[in-house]
Amino acid sequence: MGGEAEKWVLMVTARTPTNIAVIKYWGKRDETLILPINDSISVTLDPSHLCTTTTVSVSPSFDQDRMWLNGKEISLQGGRFQSCLREIRARAQDVEDKKKGIKINKEDWQKLNLHIASYNNFPTAAGLASSAAGLACLVFSLAKLMNLKEDNSQLSAIARQGSGSACRSLYGGFVKWCMGKEENGSDSLAVQLADEKHWDELVIIIAVVSAQQKETSSTSGMRDTVETSALIEHRAKEVVPKRITEMEGAIQNRDFATFTRLACTDSNQFHAVCLDTYPPIFYMNDTSHRIISCVEKWNRAEETPQVAYTFDAGPNAVMIARNRKTAALLLQRLLYNFPPQSDTDLDSYIIGDKSILQDAGIKDMKDVEALTAPPEVKDKIPTEKSKGDVSYFICTRPGGGPVVLSDETHALLNPLTGLPK
Amino acid sequence: MGGEAEKWVLMVTARTPTNIAVIKYWGKRDETLILPINDSISVTLDPSHLCTTTTVSVSPSFDQDRMWLNGKEISLQGGRFQSCLREIRARAQDVEDKKKGIKINKEDWQKLNLHIASYNNFPTAAGLASSAAGLACLVFSLAKLMNLKEDNSQLSAIARQGSGSACRSLYGGFVKWCMGKEENGSDSLAVQLADEKHWDELVIIIAVVSAQQKETSSTSGMRDTVETSALIEHRAKEVVPKRITEMEGAIQNRDFATFTRLACTDSNQFHAVCLDTYPPIFYMNDTSHRIISCVEKWNRAEETPQVAYTFDAGPNAVMIARNRKTAALLLQRLLYNFPPQSDTDLDSYIIGDKSILQDAGIKDMKDVEALTAPPEVKDKIPTEKSKGDVSYFICTRPGGGPVVLSDETHALLNPLTGLPK
């Protein structure tokens, strides 16, 4: 170890996207290693709108591993954090920063303590896969700090042990988590099917739905499903493998109709096996159902599907529109059916890529109030519009994978003290 | 044919119960004959609270078949009515009423026209299986009028062609609809597993839940499920047969714990395959989910299950309590979570067997307002109590099968004119 009087702090800041599964992961065959019972496929979301930024730092002056999430210190004692830290340290390499006069030999990493700060640019508790982005970012940034030789796919197998779906956040675009066959989990990792430029017409709108009921965590929910559902094994063994092959083809060929059919039916089947769990698990609520009905009615009225939907372990809808024009038409429909509460301004009700709102010709609340029923709604009786059923919408698109932010202004830790800025 | 100057009217009035499936029927293998893809088991509900009364009459003066439902004339042209009428007429026998001096030879039934009047003692549109009771009552009363030799099981195979689940309303107590193997449907009929006295402790409470969305009809819903669900075949072939055997045993042994587990999981699985249909079908809503959570929480807090729940093709909950004491405790919980709207009086909010309300110690709205959270609710934060989510509750029990009402005061048709009274 080098440096002047052990006062140095070495750090790396990285940004990692979140992802949404279009063929779902639900059920583990190994709880400790987090090995799934089927492959899954996801779309990576644009990190400009949904991402985690993490700064990892090391210094001989740190007396223990510490972590801060969104500015608040949290415990690193959980088995999942510990798994990731252990796996990364075991692969650490020599690191030299000649400018700062620092040299760390790979054996030293076992003794050096870490400070980690992580920040989500979206609400953590909103059910938007914050743990996936978070664990992926932790693993990616530590791998850079410790100079790991592993590629992102190999890193994904480490992130997987922190949070299953985190492994899919190691790549941008379209990603497959291969369940693998090995008992030690070494082949249960993510591969990129196509990057975000391959199918760059797609636009994603997320409805963050107000929830009243406390949700079942994914971890305990999928355990209960595997233990009690009479349908989950059939899904994992017979249904999903075919859908994975079909979905890979749909992505390869930018076949939106097939993509939509598979994404929607697989989301619905995931929620079906949750309902087949005992006691049953409900993640979707009446608002989720109404969003599905709105999209289904429109898709069926058109010659080809316009929008795919998918729901994770919560009531939020993730809608994927075939292009910008469709996204603008979707946003009109969503605002017609789910207007904001009177005290909410449009600017905080539609966040992310606000240009979609412009495309939809909506500048202010008057434009929202002037929206009329879309043509596919036959009975022009105004449907019950409960304001406040949706908290807000996020407009985004498929996006890129993890990146190192070399500009120190992005760092979440003070480069001199290694404490949160 | 006899009688003075063709002026006679001969009639029969019968009453038939509705039924609730505890192992569900969902999916046909033959749409015309109404042959199911799996066996099902139901509990017959006490006709004092839920039944259809039907008067069928014949007279040489009738110039066409006519039918009135709840006082309003309806068409008999539907294929399902016609199937039942054709099958019954084909089995008609000689009928003689010496007192009235009437003699009808079996060949005459093909030429004689019928007047039919039917009345439900519960709201027809509330999703309470009115068509099951109605078709069963039509077939049963016509069979009596035309002196058929067939027993109730053979009659059930005719009622089945009017409405699948109607076949299970030909018996009281606990009834199994055997799917059968024959292509012509002759062995797809109902058999009684046990009569209503076999397990007479059970108490049933039905929550009629206010629905906002228009529901998918069972007929089109189950067709869509069979055509699009990737799970329905596995359910019908692998899951249901085992549950049928287990449920027969549970009923035989009055094993409430097994009965509850099977009834709840099978209801949930039926709704799971609806969700796995494309586009998905939602019959339960947020209120249904809250009722399930309330029951599940209580069942898990007790050493053995207290209440089973099951939902048909709508949001209404049918809850089966192990005995009267449990039913009173259930009613307290239901009224605590789902109080009536301020303008509703208790007497119209709890209908049917009101003695359960007395057992629960509830005399008026003050008693409802004084209810406290049940012990199994840990966080004593009052949950959101949306008044009006439940329209009303019906307290009832397992009941008997069809009966002829020989007292002419029950007749719905005028004995002289054959027209509605």
TrEMBL record, chains A, B:
This is Diphosphomevalonate decarboxylase. Coiled coil: none annotated. It comes from Lactuca saligna. GO terms for biological process: isopentenyl diphosphate biosynthetic process, mevalonate pathway; sterol biosynthetic process. Keywords: ATP-binding, Isoprene biosynthesis, Lipid biosynthesis, Lipid metabolism, Lyase, Nucleotide-binding, Peroxisome, Steroid biosynthesis, Steroid metabolism, Sterol biosynthesis, Sterol metabolism. It catalyses: (R)-5-diphosphomevalonate + ATP = isopentenyl diphosphate + ADP + phosphate + CO2. It holds the Pfam family MVD-like_N. Residues 17-190 form the Diphosphomevalonate decarboxylase-like N-terminal domain. Belongs to the diphosphomevalonate decarboxylase family. Its main location: other. One of its GO terms (molecular function) is ATP binding. Homodimer. Transmembrane segments: none annotated. The keyword DNA-binding does not apply. Performs the first committed step in the biosynthesis of isoprene-containing compounds such as sterols and terpenoids. Its EC number is 4.1.1.33. Signal peptide: none annotated. It is found in: Peroxisome. PANTHER family: DIPHOSPHOMEVALONATE DECARBOXYLASE (PTHR10977:SF3). GO terms for cellular component: cytosol; peroxisome. SUPFAM superfamilies: GHMP Kinase, C-terminal domain, Ribosomal protein S5 domain 2-like. Residues 204-404 form the Mvd1 C-terminal domain.
